[in-house]
């Protein structure tokens, strides 16, 4: 299994965004977004830049909790999109976002998947308790929303004690997905959109019921001076933005 990398320190991000020639400038719009939004937001970025000549969007993807820490530590971010309400609530409690700009823009779900060529039979959540299921990938609940949602699902299925010794924590939902697609685990919990991204590399087992609705909020960072920040959010929630997000498997909130 590849070595897990810690979140990029805010000072490194700041240097990368502000000091690297051609990478970022005062006119750039910097968007930090949950890892599960990577593909959809790259498409949104291209579409927004096409309709806003001269605007350059710099994207930064990672676990929502890690992105929040970067913002807290002064990383130059204009827009933040989280994969859960809890992380955005934390940002709001610390006055890091402009409350009036906060909006829920998509909904997702947690699914249980296996490597497509797995020899271990997992047909439901209950099978995770079987002795031949040795390793289960899950996002670190401390920083990864998908991990928190998955932990809820495991508890609702009354499997917490049975699967606890088998859990392999990942630093983002995309790292969780990597563990599954490379066959390093017997099963894993990811967002439905990530499973769609993996395609034939994973085998769908079931959707996981959670007590918390999986909605994604977006907001302008309070320290942002970029006039295009609100425009980008307006584009994300617009019919065109929602069409793009829908193409990647996201649902309306």
Task: Give the low-confidence spans.
Answer: 1-12, 14-24
Question: What is the fourth-level CATH superfamily of the largest domain?
Answer: Periplasmic binding protein-like II
> Mean pLDDT score, rounded?
92
Domains, number: 2
Based on DSSP secondary structure assignment, what is the total number of beta strands?
10
Portion in strands: 15-25%
**Cross-sheet strand order for the largest sheet:** 2-1-3-10-4
Helix content: 25-40%
Largest beta-sheet details? 5 strands, mixed
What's the architecture of the largest domain in CATH terms? 3-Layer(aba) Sandwich
Here the CATH topology of the largest domain equals D-Maltodextrin-Binding Protein, domain 2
Distance between the termini: 35 Å
Number of helices: 10
The first-level CATH class name of the largest domain: Alpha Beta
Structural class: alpha/beta
Radius of gyration: 18 Å
Oligomer: single chain
Shape: elongated
Element order: H for helix, E for strand: HEHEHEHEEEHHEHEHEEHH
Overview of this protein structure:
- The protein is α/β, with parallel strands linked by helices and 253 residues long.
- It has two domains: 10-107 and 215-247, Periplasmic binding protein-like II (D-Maltodextrin-Binding Protein, domain 2); 110-208, Periplasmic binding protein-like II (D-Maltodextrin-Binding Protein, domain 2, 3-Layer(aba) Sandwich), CATH 3.40.190.
- 36% of the residues lie in helices and 21% in strands.
- The protein contains ten helices and ten strands.
- It has helices at residues 10-18, 38-51, 64-72, 85-93, 145-156, 160-163, 173-181, 192-198, 228-237, 239-247, and strands at 29-34, 57-62, 79-81, 103-107, 110-115, 136-139, 167-170, 187-191, 202-208, 215-220.
- A five-stranded mixed sheet has the order 2-1-3-10-4. The chain has a five-stranded mixed sheet with strand order 7-6-8-5-9, sandwiched between helices.
- α2 (38-51) runs antiparallel to α10 (239-247).
- The longest helix has 14 residues, at 38-51.
- The protein is elongated, with a radius of gyration of 18 Å.
- The chain starts with 9 loop residues before the first helix and ends in a 6-residue tail after the last helix.
- Residues 1-12 and 14-24 have low confidence and may be disordered.
